[in-house]
Design a protein that fits this description.
This protein has 190 residues and is an alpha/beta fold. A hairpin with a 2-residue loop joins strand 5 and strand 6. It is built from seven helices and six strands. It has a six-stranded mixed beta sheet, sandwiched between helices.
């Protein structure tokens, strides 16, 4: 059993900045979202009879979210580099407008999905999938994972065997989470 959580809303989320592996703190709304998720998780976990581990991306926004979850769940935490967000290299921290101005033509013909992987020095889709596969193969006990929007989509894609096109359509809520068990993915929210 894996519960996959996205970090709460950040300042850069509200500004339309793609964070990648750069960071931005949670907003007050993001803190409320993390607290909501903690309450939902406590309800899910308390009825499971299982002992969970908290596995967290090392990026600050995920760490902030995990600290709020941990205060409610009282479970052991470990950090895992493989859960960090996909990096768009020199595009990390930029808006789409800034990318278009600084890298003219690079986004031409892009869809909502593939622009993340057009950066000249960012992580490729295959590299991100390999990272997700490696992480999933190493999970041998019930886990709460705190990760990110795009990488969370990729984790669910790899776990469920979805196509790239199906993956981009996946939702990435910040006030709910996903339960991954026996090859199925179930959304949990208020």
């Amino acid at each position: 059993m894996i519960y996959l959580v996205r970090h709460g809303e950040t300042v850069w989320n509200t500004l339309g900045r793609y964070q990648g592996i750069k960071d931005s703190p949670l907003t007050p709304h993001g803190v409320r979202q993390a607290n909501t998720v903690a309450t939902l998780l406590r309800r899910e976990i308390s009825g499971s009879g299982q002992s969970f581990e908290l596995c967290v991306s090392p990026l600050g926004r995920a760490q902030e979210t995990a600290a709020l979850l941990q205060s409610v769940l009282q479970i052991n935490k470990s950090d895992d580099e493989r859960l960090k967000e996909v990096s768009a290299g020199s595009w990390d921290g930029l808006t789409t407008f800034e990318i278009e101005n600084e890298f003219p033509g690079m986004l031409r013909g892009s869809t909502a999905y593939d622009w993340y992987f057009k950066s000249p020095d960012g992580e490729s889709f295959d590299q991100a999938c390999d990272r997700a596969t490696a992480w999933l193969k190493n999970i041998h006990k019930p886990t709460v994972a705190v990760s990110h929007g795009l990488f969370g989509r990729i984790l669910r894609e790899v776990y469920s065997g979805l196509s790239k096109e199906e993956m981009i359509e996946l939702t990435v809520p910040q006030d709910g989470f996903f339960a991954l068990e026996d090859g199925a993915v179930r959304a949990v929210s208020c």
